[in-house]
Sequence to fold (292 residues):
Amino acid sequence: MGHRAGFVNIIGNPNVGKSTLMNAMVGEKLSIITSRAQTTRHRIHGILNTEDYQIIFSDTPGILDPRYKLQESMLKSARSALVDADVLIYLTEMGEKPDPENSFLQKVAKLKVPVLLVINKIDQSTQEKVVETMEKWETVLPNAEKIPISALKKFNVESIFNRILFHLPESPPYYPKDALTDKSERFFAGEMIREKILLSYKQEIPYAVEVEIEAFKEETKLLRIQAMIYVERESQKGILIGNEGKALKRVGRESRLDMEKFFQKKVFLELRVKVKKDWRNNERQIKNFGYH
Ligand SMILES: Nc1nc2c(ncn2[C@@H]2O[C@H](COP(=O)(O)OP(=O)(O)OP(=O)(O)O)[C@@H](O)[C@H]2O)c(=O)[nH]1
Ligand SMILES: [Mg+2]
Fold:
């Protein structure tokens, strides 16, 4: 058999572990992961290369009912993953109830490409419940192959691999064989900052934040990165910066440590905060930020 290559798109509700799964499959921390829903906002390719094949995984934003323009764009990129997959992974977690009326699931049920219904987080459950859950899904997605896993504990992830390899079409590679992702270094720098913000602030703050990398300069011994953090209101700016700037300093320190690990270089990181009123609902503004 010749070279094989294809697109494996991972979709599912927010917070079910899509990013954790993609990182586990690719073996790199590409997508940021937090315990909060709507962590991922863009579709991200993670590429796995061997001599014989290339698998291009897509991590996507969770499927949601959009309440503002940014979420509309997030839903659009989740939807786009339905149409260009060679293999589709619908990721669910233990406890999610399959809803036969759900229009997204109905679309998945009608797909022509192979669908893997992967049930995540079985480390928190019993064998009995897992069997029960698989049976429940049987009625909604009868044609999907059902695979219970734990992405976090990397349990049974190899079963997904085996099924992907079984279905992967013959094709030349889509990307150079040393490519790891479709996103830029700037993108990942911004995501690392956003992850720290998701982890550090309560309630609505992280959702009102966008990070833009304004400068990314490679010097001999050092990476010099300047980032602008946008919020929607003046009050959020105050919370983000914190008393005597302590909160923002912590975000900066933690992001820098992550970046030094990721880029394998000393990093000098400068963070600033600016208000861009109600940017989440401003079509032009979210386009400027790189959403489609
Ligand atoms: N117990 C357990 N937790 C898991 C597992 N996989 C992921 N998680 C946790 O679930 C949470 C969400 O994980 P993500 O990978 O960010 O989920 P996601 O589907 O990408 O979420 P969004 O990007 O917000 O849609 C994190 O706290 C993970 O650590 C698992 O197998 N078991
Ligand atoms: Mg995610």
In short: The longest helix spans residues 246-263.
